Amino acid sequence: MRRCAVARVRLPQTVPSPTAVTRASGRRNHSVHAQQQKKTPLTQSQPLQASDTFFNAQNAPKPPVRPDPYKLVAPQLQQLRETLLDLLGSSHPSLTEIAKYYFLHPSKQLRPLLVLLFSQATNGLGGGWHLKKWAAECEGAGGRTEELDRPLTRPDVLNDWNPSMPDHTASFQASFSLRPPRPPHQSPSPPPFPPPGIPTVASPLALLPTQIRLAQIVEMIHVASLLHDDVVDKSPLRRGAASAPAAFGNKLSVLAGDFLLGRTSAALSRLGENEVVELIASVIANLVEGEIMQLKSVHAEELGIAGLSPSVGQENWNIYLQKTYLKTASLMAKGARAAVVLGGCKEGEIWKEVAYAYGRNLGIAFQLVDDILDYEAGDATLGKPGGADLQLGLATGPALFAWEEHPEMGPLIKRKFEQPGDVELARDLVRRSSGVERTRELARAHADKAREVLSVLPDSEAKGALEALTERVVKRTS
Ligand code: FPP
Ligand code: MG
Asked: What's the distance, CA 149 to chain centroid?
């Protein structure tokens, strides 16, 4: 009989609310971080903190050496980057060019990284792993790379006319005549039972082709959202180069984003897992919802929609964190969860809950740090001038915390930093407050929570890399 994972699991506690992040956060030992450390029992997989080693630093055990997250799956990341461009061909060369544009500049590839690491950390554990592994190996079962590249529908129905593929597309020079149906596909029979024994993490590295394709899909959705975002934000630069709207114009940028979403939808359906289609489709809706929330907070009047009225307190934070989840963390959380589903995690098993909780907390931490970096000198590699959010009228974590200490921030936030000198004054108020420290502390609390939920997983290199990632996300400087 399979061992029941749920029964053995002790679920971790929740992240404290932002208003519980105290002003003297960095100086008092009752900060969120300190409380978090007190509450969290040390497990084998958690590093010892400075406070734990204070009295006997020399004899203290060294923190575990964790694999570099990017190095652990570097060949797979490289491979998926190269083959991704094959998914973007079209019979319209200008569309192909702009759709590929953002993939030609190096990116962090954080979303695909999460998909690959979670796949590696949980493959072998789910009750349906043996079926997924079989489908990835057995010809005709639908899980091999060649099969993921093959259309489910007849090619001349699926693809629009392309003169370089006359056998796979239908010309418009004649009306379309009835074609004979294809013979039905005979699927091989899957093995009836899982092999006996306790499920363990698959070793050595066992990423399924469906999981690699999912990693490409999440990156494509991310890029589609950036193509749209750079139109909305009127950004002249992205990653140090001309943004797509600056290079190709707004209309083509929006259309290229839509084209990417079309290609991801077809690729998603070939993964053969309805739950994954549902998860990823809901991410696309979330991205739009997050963007609308952000627009509402600034441009409600000109858009003719009901706005949000900022007021100090929890409600403000709820809106900001919800927007952060929708805009950034949802893709990480649901992408990681989808990876675990593709690895055969069944309903009632804890593994996909771990993936979601980790991705959600890590994603929020990532965006909070992004919002801090926006206050710092500016990021040449991202092509972001410092204070870009304020210029867009957005009050993010540092400004919201600063408002609690400097009431003068309130009117600036309410008028979206519109008047001359508002942006400079707001930056100064943030500098004279503990807003940046407190935002980083809130990011740290979310990252700690992400690391804590991993304790449910069996030890593996991928788990160590996911732990290391929580540290990197908080400490990153670009
Ligand atoms: C970057 O945020 C933008 C996003 C994370 C999401 C944008 C989403 C949309 C425009 C909705 C449309 C979505 C799809 C999938 C078509 P940012 O402006 O804070 O970061 P940046 O500084 O990198 O631009
Ligand atoms: Mg933007």
From this structure: 24
Question: Which of 263, 245, 254, 42 has its CA nearest to residue 151?
Answer: 263
pLDDT of residue 358: 98
Per the structure, the count of domains in the chain is: 1
Q: Where does 266-379 show beta strands of DSSP type E?
A: 378-379
Rounded to 5 degrees, φ, ψ at 167 are -80, -15
Tell me the Cα Rg of the chain.
24
Cβ atoms 140, 186 nearer than 8 A = yes
Ligand number, closest to the Cα atom of 289:
1
Q: Is residue 165 part of a domain?
A: no
**CB under 8 Å to 326, separation ≥6 — which residues?**
286, 287, 289, 290, 293
Judge contact between 362 and 473, C-beta under 8 A: yes
Ion ligand 2 residue ranges (Cβ < 5 Å): 229, 233
Decide if 1 is inside a domain.
no
Q: Which pLDDT band holds residue 9 (cuts at 50, 70, 90)?
A: very low
pLDDT (0 to 100) of residue 316: 82
> Which of 108, 219, 225, 282 to mutate to test ligand 1, by most ligand atoms within 8 A of the CB atom?
225
The structure's pTM equals 0.86
105 lies in which domain range? 66-153+202-475
Q: How far apart are CA 300 and CA 243, in angstroms?
A: 26
Binding pocket residue ranges, ligand 1, CB within 6 Å = 221, 224-225, 228-229, 232-233, 235, 257, 261, 284, 287-288, 291, 327-328, 384
Q: How far is CA 10 from CA 35, 134, 172, 350, 361, in A?
A: 19, 32, 62, 11, 18
Q: Which CATH number characterizes residue 258's domain?
A: 1.10.600.10
Q: Which atom of ligand 1 is nearest to the CA of 228?
A: 10
Express each pLDDT in 339-378 by its tens digit: 999 999 999 999 999 999 999 999 999 999 999 999 885 5
Cβ atoms of 279 and 221 closer than 8 Å:
no
- Let me know if 349 is exposed, middle or buried by CB neighbors in 10 A (0-12, 13-18, 19+): buried
Smallest Cα–Cα separation from 443: which of 16, 70, 111? 16
Q: 158 versus 439: which is more confidently predicted?
A: 439
Per-residue tokens: 427? 């930056």
The CA-based diameter of the chain, rounded to the nearest angstrom, is 85
CA distance 328 to 264: 18
- Average pLDDT on 165-186 reads 88
Cα of 314 vs its chain's centroid, Å: 25
The yes-or-no verdict on residue 226 having pLDDT over 90 is yes
Residue 193 lies in a domain: no
Question: Considering the domain boundaries, does residue 212 fall inside one?
Answer: yes
